[in-house]
Amino acid sequence: MISKKYAQPLFMILMSLGMSIIMSGVVTAVNTGINNGFSDRWFHSFLFAFPVALIAAFSLAPVMRPFVNKIASKD
Asked: How far is Cα 2 from Cα 10, in angstroms, rounded to an integer?
């Protein structure tokens, strides 16, 4: 089992991974179509998208967390 102190970073890594897989697949399909070589193009796009998504998640989290806490209801 992974320590609770690593839960948030692990969440951001896995969320970035999942979103970059989905988004790179959708954008690749829209831009180039689903035909020969799609999986190669998708994988290449994913290899570029995942680090960008990971950096974005870790960079934006400290800014967004207080913003969300401010606008979220106190219920």
From this structure: 9
